[in-house]
Fold mannan endo-1,4-beta-mannosidase.
Amino acid sequence: MVKSSKYKMAGGNGLFFPILGFASIVAFMYLSFGDLFSVVNYKNEISLSFVGRNGSNFVVDDKLFYINGWNSYWFMDHAVHDHTRPRIRAMLQAAAKMGLTVCRTWAFNDGDYNALQISPGQFDERVFKALDFVIAEAREVGIRLLLSLVNNLDAYGGKTRYVKWAWSEGVGLSSSNDSFFYDPSIRIYFKNYVKTILTRKNTITGLQYRDDPTIFGWELINEPRCITDPSGDTLQDWIEEMSTFIKKIDNKHLLTVGLEGFYGPKSPKRKTVNPEFWAADMGVDFIRNSAHSAIDFASVHIYPDQWFKNKSLEGKLKFVADWMHSHIEDGERELKKPVMFTEFGLSDLNKGFDPAQRDEFYKIVFDVIYESAKKKGAGGGSFAWQFLVEGMEEFNDDFGIVPWKRASTYSIITRHTCRLAKIHGGVTPITGNLKNICNGRW
């Protein structure tokens, strides 16, 4: 998600809030969560193990691990500045209070405001330390991170930025942003970036990223599409090369592609499961792209508002359940790998939108995951797009929520945590007390 750069820090000097306004945000968080801030000063009290895979299941310390997660793509960007850095801790601690276990966030910002990679191979240490901070904060709270390495979209640089770099240096083969996937020079740029990230030594924890179990895994690219080659061959070649490259550097962490889940032109499901006919022409193929041996789990997104123009809400919600069941079936029968729904959201721009509709949408997603978990199935987890804390309206989109502002939504999220914990013993290394979270929700 994140279609444009408007959801980032505004202006060259950042977005500054009055001291009184920021203090009110902190006060609200404290009053809303009581003892949430009592964990601020503890250091490394939570021991995390690497998440592994056993067939179509995630495992931690030989226990099945089903994930109730969320997206806060903005962590690194907000960790750069003193006045916005507290939001990371507030969001992580609020998530721990809900029993959430994994956050998906960006480990990239290419040549844009607060850029991590200023130009090919040139990094801003100030921003790298912000990413260090995000990982260290997550480690202290006991929440893992799924880190995405580049964007298919233009926000935060994306593959278009890499193409512009190659073009400006006179080595680019084409000005098409799809040349990101096939231009040899750009492939070298990206490999150098990936190696720098994976081997980065965190200035706070002292651990190289590839050695830190706080990181759940890596995502190659957010929502890849290669429309100039609808056969899918170009993207598949890129996936195979980059995933193999990553695994040679880091074989401790899990790896996924970052797909939306569309079935390609050779898939029998392209006409029966895809949202509409155009989805088969995006240069992607869920089964083929996820099958390579270096890819540990499949990823799927769920955006019925964006994918359908004329379908009723009832029709969209029916699609959601069918879409999820189809991909979980693929994970179990074809791929023999877990399937994660790494983004799902319902837009508040719909005509006649009511927050109760979003609650219903969340329930459907959570129920499908729960039913899979009961059978030890391949539906490994789900990640809402997106969660924010108070005072972040500037960075919101039509899918974002502050989950504790609506009691019914908050209850749906925590109930899902508790149902998953009850089934498999609760792999929940969180600062909150699971028994307290789940009192009355078992």
Summary: The chain has one domain: 46-437. The first strand starts at residue 52 and ends at 54.
